[in-house]
Amino acid sequence: MACGSSAPAPSVAPQATLAPSSANENVPESTPPLGEEERYFSDGSPWNQPAPAARAEDQSDLRSIAESKPGEGLYVNIERFSIRAYEAAETEVPVDCRFTNTGNPIAAPIPEGAELDPTVDSPMSILDRDAGRSWDFAGLRRDEAGAYSCWLGSEVNLRGDGVAPPGPASGEHVGARWFESHRSRACGFPLLAGLIRPHELERGEIDHALVLGYPGIRGRFYVEPASTAHSVFELITEDEGLPCGARVVLDPQLDIDSLPVDRNGKTILRALQRYGAFVGDYAGGITLYAEANGPAFARYEAIGFDGASLHDHPELLEHLQLVEHGPYLDGDLNRNPADLVARSEASRWRNLEPLPGSIRAQFEALPNEDIDAPGEFYYRSNERRHDVIAEALAGRGGVTMGVGSDQLYTFAALSGATMLVAIDYDPRIRFVHEIYAKLIAESENPERLIARFAPRQRRQTAELLQSSSEQAQRLYRRLAGDLHTYLQRVQRRPASWLQAQHYAHVRSLILSGRFIARTGDLTANGTLREASVLLRSLGAQIGVFYPSNAEQFFPFREDFVRNIANIPGGDRSLLLRTIRHPQLPNVRGDSWHYVLHDLSDFRERIETGAYLRINEVMEDLIASRANSQDGVSRFTAEIPHHRANRRRRREQRERSRPSQR
Q: DSSP secondary structure string, 29-42?
């Protein structure tokens, strides 16, 4: 099975926010109700984006399923094993669900007379058009007294992107917040996602992706936009098959008009050509799903749709193709429940929405300070072991801000940043970022980006950079050869931004306008201060602030202390520094000791006035014996203020001495 680089992040409608959208967020009261023929989820949702061309070379899993079921074509489930979908009633009734995606009890407006699916799955979705949300249930039951219960209930924002944060395999009820990742379908999809609806067949057009039940589904592992994997049992293994989230399309070269299928069948086949279908559950055959309820059944009958027209054409399965998908995610979290939180937060990049023009204009207005270029030019990072801090950065979210070149991209990807702000003392670094931003936007995967620095590609790459600044064009000509070698080396390092999933994150930040690079002095009342004011006004918080080792070159005077105080931080905000110190061992294979310092604690220490240089701050760390032997230290408020306390005791002694006359 080919499973190469991630597809480009989809474009989505702008919102005036720096925070990513959430499938569980409340819908504002001003949101208009969903129209009866309006498609669910945002325009940028994977469900509403045309499928990329199928590029996977190995189609064996698809072919093997077709060969194992000779004479069978595509099913379309309607009455059984499909989704019972109903409009919300006026009043809500409690539903006693064993699990919910919010962790809270559910009360849902299930209408009187709603018919349950007779199968064991018994899925049902209740749609509230005014609120733009649905209540989804798996294993819904009603006892003789009319009380409802279910195995798993979820609340879904139908104005969001329809994608949940990644989580564990279905049936593995372990790990922090696992329930947030589940919807009431095995692969974590909302029940209304991918349904064939009556009005779509009536008009002859389906304008969204479909959902696919698949007999050869793979257990344990999944790919985005799925958020969970199917559990493993006797018919499902973790060694072969298509994972949850895999996308299948119909050969675009197939002439649908010439096929001997009816109008309804051709409508479905055109949707499979343009949008494809995401693997969403196990089924005994290759299966699509249609909305199921009384009014829908009547409309299907009126247009002659019974779901069987494609089943009589098994030859169609030979034209299904697998779209190359992103990296596998492991749904087995028995190893470490904290993995769920880290992976959930770090994956939030896919929900990034383009910055509105007004907000982007404010970032563009941030000044570049007039600073002469220093003698040394650090256009590439000399840090080699970012893998040792990957776990500590995971799930920080927020804004990554700091100095340096491409190492910032790794920190943004590892932390799941929603914004990247680069502010470096060297004015040339801004143009290095300009080169990267332009070429990353034009390169769908890291291999393509690296190739743009290769000798054979330099003329073509120079043409791509013609709209860039003269400084960026000159730097590309000067540095291309060195950067080509450097980037190949970086790609081989663990946890680098040139790994496929991390590159996709960085690229999404750039494509959504969430990356800005400026020249600025950390110790001046200038760009850093203005950037902090802007971020604070937008309600954003720093996830990772990275000064590299710059602190070793200046004293902590008033402007620097004030700059740190003004950075919009929260409980999860982290200052990441590199340092060389005789009492702090370097990471094996690297030239640096990494210090993970709670931003609030650093702020508190330097505001005392007792710490005038970074080595004085490090005295507290060394005195506490908190530095680890693997070259990484964790600096928190629990470490005593040794230096400040010594200064306070000295001042007290001086005040207690009798005055001399």
A: TTSPPPPTTPPSS-
| DSSP-based three-state secondary structure for 94 | strand
Confidence of residue 66 (pLDDT cuts 50, 70, 90): low
Instruction: Report long-range pairs for 581-586 (Cβ below 8 Å, ≥24 apart).
Output: 581/615, 581/618, 581/622, 583/622, 583/627, 584/618, 584/621, 584/622, 584/627, 584/633, 585/627, 585/629, 585/631, 586/631
**Given the DSSP bridges, would you call strands 320-322 and 247-250 parallel, antiparallel or unpaired?**
antiparallel
- Cα 132 to Cα 17, 31, 80, 129: the distances in Å are 20, 8, 26, 5
Q: Is the peptide bond before 52 cis (omega within 30 degrees of 0)?
A: no
DSSP 316: G
Q: Which helix (H) or strand (E) holds 375?
A: none
The yes-or-no verdict on residue 443 having pLDDT over 50 is yes
Contact 211, 289 (CB under 8 A): yes
Alpha-carbon distance of 570 to 579, in angstroms, equals: 24
State pLDDT tens for residues 321-355: 999 888 888 776 433 333 333 333 333 334 467 87
pTM: 0.52
Q: How far apart are CA 512 and CA 490, in angstroms?
A: 25
| DSSP class per residue in 350-365 | GG--PPPHHHHHHHHT
The full 3-state SS of 218-259, as one line of letters, equals: EEEEECCCCCCCECCECCECCCCCEEECCEEEECCCCCHHHC
Number of Cβ within a 10 Å radius of residue 252: 13
Using alpha carbons, list the distances in angstroms from residue 608 to 261, 596, 603: 78, 20, 9
In this predicted structure, the answer to whether residue 374 has a pLDDT above a threshold of 60 is: yes
Q: Give the number of other Cβ atoms within 10 Å of residue 241's Cβ.
A: 22
Contacts of 170 (CB under 8 A, 6+ apart): 182, 186, 187, 228, 229, 230, 231, 331
Q: Are 207 and 39 in contact (CB under 8 A)?
A: yes
Tokens 């979820």 correspond to 154
